[in-house]
């Protein structure tokens, strides 16, 4: 993910490249913590838990949470956590 460019529009909004959004599982409405780092800044996504589990026909199902994208890595981590 190194070397990607982002742009700042007239309203001060930063456009994050699609490749970065996809790799990080960032969807609409995700909020960021902004940290000033010397001559730059660091954007850290504030993720609400995407692990809302409901039961459907006796099976646990991960329910969609608005503004949070559940990635394959999330599901694998939850499966691994459940096996410990």
Radius of gyration: 16 Å
Number of helices: 2
Strand content: 25-35%
- Provide the CATH top-level class of the largest domain: Mainly Beta
Strand line-up across the major sheet = 1-2
* Mean pLDDT figure: 81
Structure, described:
The chain is of the alpha+beta class and 84 residues long. The chain has two domains: 7-46, Ribbon (Pemi-like Protein 1, Chain: D); 52-82, no CATH class. Helix content is 21%, strand content 33%. It has helices at 18-24, 72-82; strands at 7-8, 14-15, 31-37, 40-46, 52-56, 59-63. The strands form three sheets. The protein has a two-stranded antiparallel ribbon with strand order 1-2. The chain has a two-stranded antiparallel ribbon with strand order 3-4. Strand 5 (52-56) and strand 6 (59-63) form a beta hairpin. It starts with 6 loop residues before the first strand and ends with a helix. GO terms for molecular function: DNA binding. It comes from Ornithinimicrobium avium. This is AbrB/MazE/SpoVT family DNA-binding domain-containing protein. Keywords: DNA-binding.
Short description:
One of its GO terms (molecular function) is DNA binding. With 84 residues, the chain is of the alpha+beta class. It contains two helices and six strands, in the order E-E-H-E-E-E-E-H.
List the topology elements.
Blueprint: E1 7-8, E2 14-15, H1 18-24, E3 31-37, E4 40-46, E5 52-56, E6 59-63, H2 72-82
Antiparallel strand pairs: 1-2, 3-4, 5-6
Pfam family, one: MazE_antitoxin
Keywords: DNA-binding
Protein name: AbrB/MazE/SpoVT family DNA-binding domain-containing protein
């Amino acid at each position: 993910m190194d070397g990607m460019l982002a742009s700042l529009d007239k309203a001060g909004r930063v456009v994050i490249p699609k490749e970065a959004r996809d790799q990080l599982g960032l969807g609409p409405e995700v909020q960021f913590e902004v940290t000033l780092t010397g001559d730059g800044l660091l954007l850290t996504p504030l993720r609400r838990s995407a692990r809302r589990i409901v039961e459907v026909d006796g099976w646990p199902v991960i329910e969609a949470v608005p503004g949070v994208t559940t990635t394959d890595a999330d599901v694998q981590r939850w499966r691994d956590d459940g096996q410990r």
